[in-house]
Amino acid sequence: METVGGEIQVEELKRRLDAGEDIYVLDVREPHEYQIANIGGHLIPLGDLPNRVHELDTSREIVAHCKSGGRSAKAVTFLRQAGFKRVHNLAGGITAWADRVDPKMPKY
Q1: Catalytic residue ranges
Q2: pTM (2 decimals)?
């Protein structure tokens, strides 16, 4: 996987999802943000992650995202400290996805 500092670009994620690769997309935004726009990820808000980390599978590849990459970077750091090895941050978050993958997606 092409990653720089544990990040993955939106185009790479889209290509890999389209190819049917088993990637767990973790959305760490708030529920109201998820309702505005989402890429079909599993919603676990950043503040809930410590209490819900047991819901995640350490053997799966995880790509975390938020609106622009800040909260998901914190999630990636937390997950790595919790023993997850295959975890990446989506560079630019859902804003980059809307800009570069799906221009019809609402921005907020």
Answers
A1: 66
A2: 0.94
